[in-house]
TrEMBL record, chain A:
It is found in: Cell membrane. The chain crosses the membrane at residues 33-55, 75-97, 109-135, 147-165, 255-277. Signal peptide: none annotated. This is Histidine/lysine/arginine/ornithine transport system permease protein HisM.
TrEMBL record, chain B:
Residues 15-259 form the ABC transporter domain. This is ABC-type polar-amino-acid transporter. Its EC number is 7.4.2.1. Its main location: membrane. SMART domains: AAA. Signal peptide: none annotated. One of its GO terms (cellular component) is plasma membrane. It catalyses: a polar amino acid(out) + ATP + H2O = a polar amino acid(in) + ADP + phosphate + H(+). It is a peripheral membrane protein. Keywords: Amino-acid transport, ATP-binding, Cell membrane, Membrane, Nucleotide-binding, Transport. GO terms for molecular function: ATP binding; ATP hydrolysis activity; ATPase-coupled polar amino acid-transporter activity. It comes from the Bacteria. It is an enzyme of class 7 (translocase).
Length: 314, 263
């Protein structure tokens, strides 16, 4: 113990004026050391098990940038973006309907949300796919007329299935966001002579976004993964292409790993994007904006070098 | 006070209430209010909480609907149009049009938190009146200077003290060039040491001839700046007159007991 005190008791390092800073020996958390060792051991053994397994790891880099895989990635992203657009637009409309004073529109919105949240998306996809049994033709008067089966392409089926389901979830997220804005904001805006729609657009929605964005980011990431279900409606995307390659190249399991790796890359990119969008809508809500990851790393490095510098002095 | 420009001779009162009633469900908050605010006047409403003074103020710009009686602003009926002996409810857009001319300052400021002080002041002129952004920015800068906050133009509301926020809120209301300003307990949510700054701005505004209806607990302000004062209790006007008379020599027993507690 005396050795420790000696180490820190540098007479030059103490500032001449002011109270003496406390230099105490920190509590040792032995439990933490033990749990850290145990966690590392479990992790290493899992990695070792996979490395020892009957898996041809070389097949993954070989096919990682295969044309079919890249096409699948493109299709997956396209499907994610388009379904989310349908989901967000539909969700906003449903949320406004749900909050409207008109009992008919609010009941319809309630019913829609009840139905689409209450049934599995896989079932919904299959139903859309087989709707040709109910409607033989699609007939929009002079504008468009065709057989249902040639109208409902796999892409359209996938979009409708995923997008309409998503709208039900987005509706609840948007509704929560709109309700989170203080009523005083609407009053102040009305008192200035702003109309309902301007109040919604300029005052309420920008503030609701702070509540809406984080769960929406979650939904985008969820959607990206849910797109892997659309192979049941004959739409080819990342998972389907990986599966096809796996069957023809004789490395099926390896291609599943490859698909998983690609999904991870895509969701990671989305997470970073989400962070910056959240940061944008946080302006004005706290005294200073949260640091970007780069700023955080820089700050940590600086404080580290300061700490070691201070230690060296002492 | 002598420098005040009074337009009282023009005849029509700025605000005129005739038997105004307001109920929230079964609770009757206003039980027949009659009063008149002359142009250029500083009209103070005092009374215990729950007496209906804030509700009455909110009726003036139709944030609350009146249940019975008539309420006029500058000679025009609030919220309705009268044709013969039938009343027609005004459309939302028509109500909004009338609110342009009535500024309101809230107890809780209600600044828009996602905009800077300058943007808060610019918002309504640009969005409602269609003023160009450059013009609105210049005017907003002048208004912020007038309330003593020229250096805080770029700050968000959370970066301002309560008193500063309330002064921005006053500038925001003034940006629409209102003919009438409503103040709903503008200093009640402030630290005592910040109250003075806000009252100074209001005093300055009163001296410039603005018609003001002020719900307040600041008896000093009412006595110094007010031209008329009304004491309300349980939804009725108990006593009214010149602030100095009512505050120093209240006639009604209820007024006496209220003032003995707050002065």
């Amino acid at each position: 113990m005396t050795a420790d005190i000696d180490k820190t008791a540098g007479p030059e390092s103490t500032p001449p004026a002011g109270p003496e800073a406390i230099k105490a020996i920190p509590v040792r958390h032995y439990g933490r050391y033990i749990s850290a060792v145990a966690a590392i051991a479990i992790f290493v053994s899992i990695v070792y098990a996979f490395a020892q397994g009957q898996i041809n790891w070389d097949a993954i880099p070989e096919y990682f940038f295969d044309d079919r895989i890249l096409k699948g990635v493109g299709q997956t992203m396209l499907l994610t973006v388009l379904s989310m657009v349908i989901g967000i637009v539909g969700g906003v409309v449903l949320a406004v309907m749900r909050l409207s004073k008109n009992p008919v529109t609010s009941s319809i919105a309630w019913f829609y949300i009840w139905f689409f949240r209450g049934t599995p998306v896989l079932v919904q996809l299959v139903v859309w796919f087989n709707l040709g049994l109910v409607f033989e033709y699609i007939n929009l008067g002079f504008v468009y007329k065709d057989y249902w089966s040639s109208f409902m392409t796999p892409l359209l089926t996938a979009l409708l299935g995923l997008g309409l389901n998503e709208a039900a979830y987005m509706a609840e997220i948007c509704r929560a966001g709109l309700l989170s804005v203080d009523e005083g904001q609407t009053e102040a805006s009305h008192a200035l002579g702003m109309s309902h729609s301007k109040t919604l657009r300029r005052i309420v929605i920008p503030q609701a976004m702070r509540v809406i964005v984080p769960p929406t980011g979650n939904e985008v990431i969820n959607m990206l993964k849910t797109t892997s279900l659309v192979s049941v409606v004959q739409f080819s995307e990342l998972f389907r292409y990986a599966q096809d390659i796996g069957q023809s190249s004789g490395a099926p399991v390896e291609m599943y790993f490859l698909a998983a790796a690609w999904y991870l890359v895509l969701t990671s990119v989305l997470s970073v994007g989400q962070y910056y969008v959240e940061r944008y809508y946080a302006r004005g809500s706290s005294r200073s904006l949260p640091a970007t990851p780069l700023q955080k790393i820089r700050a940590n490095l600086l404080s580290l070098s300061n700490r070691s510098g201070g230690g060296a002095k002492a | 006070m002598t420098s005040k420009v009074t337009k009282a001779d023009s005849g029509t009162p700025m605000v005129k209430a005739e038997g105004v009633h307001k109920s929230f469900g079964p609770v009757e908050v206003l039980k027949g209010i009659d009063l008149e605010v002359k142009p250029g006047e500083v009209f103070c409403l005092i009374g215990p909480s729950g007496s209906g003074k804030s509700t009455f103020l909110r009726c003036i710009n139709h944030l609350e609907k009146v249940n019975a009686g008539r309420l006029y602003v500058d000679g025009e009926l609030v919220g309705y149009r009268q044709k013969g002996d039938k009343l027609y409810e005004l459309k939302d857009s028509e109500v909004a049009l009338k609110r342009r001319d009535i500024g309101m300052v809230f107890q809780r400021f209600n600044l828009f938190p996602h905009m800077t002080a300058l943007e808060n002041v610019m918002e309504a002129p640009v969005q409602v009146k269609g003023v160009s952004r450059a013009q609105a920015r210049e005017r907003a800068g002048q208004l912020l200077e007038r309330v003593g906050l020229a250096d805080k133009a770029g700050n968000y509301p959370t970066q301002l003290s309560g008193g500063q926020q309330q002064r921005v809120a006053i500038a925001r209301a003034l940006a629409m060039d209102p003919k009438l300003m409503l103040f709903d307990e503008p200093t009640s949510a402030l630290d005592p040491e910040l109250v003075g700054d806000v009252l100074d701005v209001m005093r300055d505004l009163a001296e410039s001839g603005m018609t003001m209806v002020v719900v307040t607990h600041e008896m000093g302000f009412a006595r110094e700046v007010g031209d008329s004062l009304v004491f309300m209790d349980e939804g009725v006007v108990v006593e009214s007159g010149h602030p100095r008379d009512v505050l120093t020599n209240p006639q009604h027993e209820r007024t006496q007991s209220f003032l003995s507690k707050v002065l």
